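User: Hey, my collaborator sent me this sequence without any context and asked if I could get a structure. I don't really work with proteins. Can you help?
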Amino acid sequence: MSQPVNELENAIVISDLKKTFNQVDYVLQGIDLKIPKGSLTAIIGFSGTGKSVILKHILGLYQPTSGSIEVLGRDLSQLDADGMTEFRKNFGVLFQGAALFDDMSVLENVCFPILEHQKNLTEAEIIDRAGKKLVQVGLNEKDFQKLPSQISGGMQKRTGLARALALDPEILFYDEPTTGLDPILTEMVDDLIVETHRHRPGITSVMVSHDLAASFRIADFVVMLHAGRVLLSGVPNVFFKTDNELVKTFVTKGMRI
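Assistant: No problem. I've predicted the 3D structure and written it out in C-alpha cell form, which is a compact way to encode the shape of the chain:
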C-alpha cells in the first residue's frame, strides 16, 4: 500500500450524483464520494453497479441527470465542450485493453497526445519526452519502433501507461486494468500501478476494478458500489471488519476467485 495522504484535500468531490439514460431507471441513485488528493483509490462492486458510469462522469463523457462533480476544484458543469477538452489535459487514462493505435509504433503512440496538445514543442522535444515516459515504465529503446502487435501484452500495458503519463496528469485513471489477464501479468500490472503512483508525488490514482485482492493490497482507499449507491468506503481494513452482510459476502467470494 502507498503512503498515507492528507484526507482534508480532495481531488474529486461527487455530491448526490444521479444518472438515468431513459428517464425511468437510475444507474446512479445519489452518489456521494470524496477521493483524497494524492491517494490511490479503488472503486469496486458487482457488475452493473455503475463503476464505469461514474468514471465517465468524472472524465466529462457523461453529464449528470442531477447532482454535481468537482474535479481539482472545478465544477464540471461550468465547462463548455472546449473547456472540458482543455481540462482533460489534467487526466491520464489506462484503458482495459491498452487501446493502442495498431498502425502506430510504440513511440508514436506515446507521441500522439503530446503532438495533439503541446503544439509549442518541436518534433525532437516530443520524441524525447515520449521516450523518457517509455523508459520510466520499464520499456527498452530497442522496442520503441515496434507495432503493438509485435510486443507482449505486458509491454502493451506499459506503452498504454506511458501514453497516459505523456502530459504529466494530476489524476491517473485505470479502467479495469487487469481484466482478462493471466495471474502473472495481473501481478505485473498491479506492481506497475503502485510504482507509478509512488514515483509521482502528489498524483491521484483512481482504479475501477473487479480484482478485489489487488484493490485491497495496493489501494489507500476502497469504495464499494451497489445498486447505484456507495455501500461502503474507507481504508481496506474496514471491509474486513464490517457487519454489512452484503459486503462480507462480496468480499469473501471475491477473494476466493
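In plain terms: The longest strand covers residues 10-20. You can pass these C-alpha cells on to your collaborator as they are.
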